[in-house]
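Changelog excerpt

This revision adds worked examples to the README so contributors can see how folded entries look when concatenated. The first example is reproduced verbatim below.
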Amino acid sequence: MLWYNKREFNLVKVGSMKKNVPGFGLIIIGTEILSGSREDAHFQKALSLVKAQGYEIKYSLVIPDDPKVIVDQLKWAFARPEALFCYGGIGATPDDFTRQCAAEAAGLPVERHPEAVAVLEEMFGERAHPIRVRMAELPKDCDLIPNPVTKVAGFSLDKHHFLPGFPEMAAPMMEWILENCYEQVEGKITLSLMVQASEGEMVPMMEAFVEAHPELYFFSLPLLTQNQEKKVRLGVIGLAEAAEKGFNDLTTELDQMKISWQKES
């Protein structure tokens, strides 16, 4: 259970909340992004924070400020095993729907969260009513996420976390969640090499490699060079021990095929 200390306005954590999840998903809400009037500024920061904790981003969606779309995508995300970070739409303007849509997707009523109200009243006094206090209308029994920039809280429903659309606020809030609510795990590494060959001649070898190493993600990326050389980047992603073994097996196969290769740093 999480709550705000009404005098200090700091988030207090009670008991052990740390989880181990199979990764994270991102939902970025913003019609402005889809229309091209604003560029997404969440994904790259989210990727670096998630990887620093040892996890992967399993999916990333950009969706419009459309209540039906938001509810549908949140229901889909809630049914998945990953944790979720959802950005945007938690303000008090007419185009902010995320608080209500999260409640609907979770089958919960919307209620005024007393600690969130206290934060707003401490910040704005009488000016918190009647508009700003709408930001405290949240899904019932949700937990608050501290906002070190404006103090206006985000909220969590179990492993689903809802943050502002402003990256300057969302990034430190996300970092707090990752450090305090999720275990540090062994991260995956990427090992890759460049070969001077065509993909076609390597397909049987690649198929056999994938079958022999189901624990790894294998990739093949052909490159077009200015002088029309045939080059392909091959690589694996996985936990260190398995990735290193797989990479060694891959180079052995290439040597046997007499295909030259160069490891990438």
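The second example, added in the same revision:
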Amino acid sequence: MTPSLPIPPLADPLEGWLQGHLGRLLIDKEIHLISRGLEQVFGTTCVQIGQWGAMDAFLAHARLPRRVLVAEPGACGDCVSHAAALPLASQSIDAVLLPHTLEFELEPHGVLREVERVLVGEGHVLILGFAPFGSWALRHHLTPAGFPPGVRQFLSARRLGDWLRVLGFEVLDTQWAPLGWPLESPALSPLVALSARLAPLFGGRLGSVYLLKAKKRVYTLTPIRPRRRAPRVLGQAVVGST
């Protein structure tokens, strides 16, 4: 009897989708957003939490000398860890990239708390996300496995900004890029490009991807010493003439 060959593991649906036509269009737009967002981010270490596309698709645009990809178990990265329990020292990272990481998490608040913990004071976080309205959001809600594959929810930039402010961040900027209709076939590329160009006429943030950039603020409290008051004069000595 001929021995049976081992069954190869199933390909990751998300990885296959990102390598497809629509996924490559998305990554190209997001690389442009990330590269602009990282222009004024400096320091020593930049960490990307969650693999999205090629390992160096976004980290290659960081001006920081040390770049680390922290991937979920089963994905490729320099370090493997869950996003809400990072094996990183507190206040040791200068910049954190979250490319759609929060949209895969059951507890996105916990991930943001970890980001706040590991960032140094005045460190930056850059978050990629999908607008929760428009054609991409509609397809996501109509697809049982999520769209793109595995995505649990779309989070608005406004909601993320509120969460970050509670954690002591200041939202610096939010950039948007229209995606057009989520049509997979390369033959329909002209329609996708046309719908992306027309998106600003119908509300440019519908069916878009955004990059939210925030900074961790640290406020130094300066103790105020109480002012010394001159002793009160209860009475004056009266010297009589003789």
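Reviewer comment on example two: The longest helix spans residues 21-37. The beta strands are 45-49, 66-71, 79-80, 93-99, 119-130, 169-178, 208-216.
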